[in-house]
Design brief:
Blueprint: E1 2-8, H1 13-26, E2 31-35, E3 42-47, H2 52-61, E4 66-68
Antiparallel strand pairs: 1-3, 1-4, 2-3
Protein name: Methyltransferase type 11
Amino acid sequence: MVVEVFKTNVQKEADKNNIITIIQNQFPHYKVNFDLEDCDKILRVEGRGLKPKSIIDYVNCLGYICVALE
């Protein structure tokens, strides 16, 4: 199981829910959640064969910033 953590600029609960739905529709075996309370608006994705670039590309295409945290 791989866990990736991303910094985003997502602010609103509705945006968070929309992004989670889109990622889970595209990657149904991934577990996805946000921590909007964190200053980095953390997106956490867990799954097998996880490709961070795919997650970043999806979130960027929706108009948000998404950067992998090291």
